[in-house]
Design goal:
Helix content: 40-55%
Number of domains: 1
Radius of gyration: 19 Å
Structural class: alpha/beta
Bound molecules: adenine, zinc ion
Number of strands: 8
Distance between the termini: 10 Å
CATH class: Alpha Beta
Largest sheet: 8 strands, parallel
Order of helices and strands: HEHHHHEHHEHEHEHEHEHHEHHHH
CATH topology: TIM Barrel
CATH superfamily: Metal-dependent hydrolases
Shape: globular
Amino acid sequence: MKRFIHNLPKVELHLHIEGSLEPELMFELAQRNQVAIPFSSPEEVREAYQFSNLQSFLDIYYQGARVLLHEQDFYDLTWAYLLRCQQDRVLHTEIFFDPQTHTERGIAFDTVIHGICRALAQGEQELGITSQLIMCFLRHLDEESAFATLQMAESHLDKIVAVGLDSSELGHPPEKFERVFARAQAMGLKTVAHAGEEGPSQNIKNAIELLGVSRVDHGVRCVDDPALVEQLSLSRMPLTVCPLSNIKLKVFETMDQHNLMQLLDQGLCVTINADDPAYFGGYMTDNFLAVAEALPMSKAQAAQLSLNAIEASFIDQQLKQKYSQLVTDYLNRCS
Ligand code: ADE
Ligand code: ZN
């Protein structure tokens, strides 16, 4: 099973590029850019990654992003992630970026997006990994800041497929951004949102009804509302679940208590993703392995998780068909 998972073709739909900043690169960039960080070694950084909830993680995560200043830094960050995708047999990835984490520090929007996109273009050319970019609004900031960010994106609509919503879910429900999301949709962008990670199942309903999302990021708290589970199953509304993240942030105490396989069995379009791999201890393969070790997972179910991600992705039908064929051929060969 380990080897099967390792070589299984995968698609990632929930990855914060700032969350792929490994401590080694953080140190390198801190030196290169003369940014002081309160750690003396990458090992010390790793030891500091003990979280009690989402907010305790976010506080450290925004600190870490302070070493990113120049276009080259965003390129290096994204390229390092793509090399990990290659190792993990990720065919396609849809990446979140948080412009406000950088523009609030005086970094130009263009610097961020150009660095990321240069690496993504190279990733497609040299590694054959296709990708899309999703611009997230930080929900702890106000609607005005989100509107200003959306305006900055206006001259980059050729590079952005969707808008998303991340950061502190508690106290910042989806409805706070209903008007911004309506504007984004009018601009031709798709929408996704983090909902039901730490927050109540009502946030999942509101993300669907008020923000018009094509996918729910996390969404694991849907189990508190059986009617919602039924609706998610019937509509095949995708959930981008992040198993290692959920354990690190104490959404579930242990992996054997995680509900994703139960949701998969109930017909939901569940997918497996890494969220912030540098902080939560693993990329795509690590996440699949951690689930398969703690919960019963057949090869067919592992393949189904990949097929779900292809179905839920924003790529065109032709590419979906090509990637799905790769997964089913692989399953047939290996079983
Ligand atoms: N930003 C980065 N990772 C996040 C997560 N898991 N939830 C909300 N916001 C985030
Ligand atoms: Zn996330």
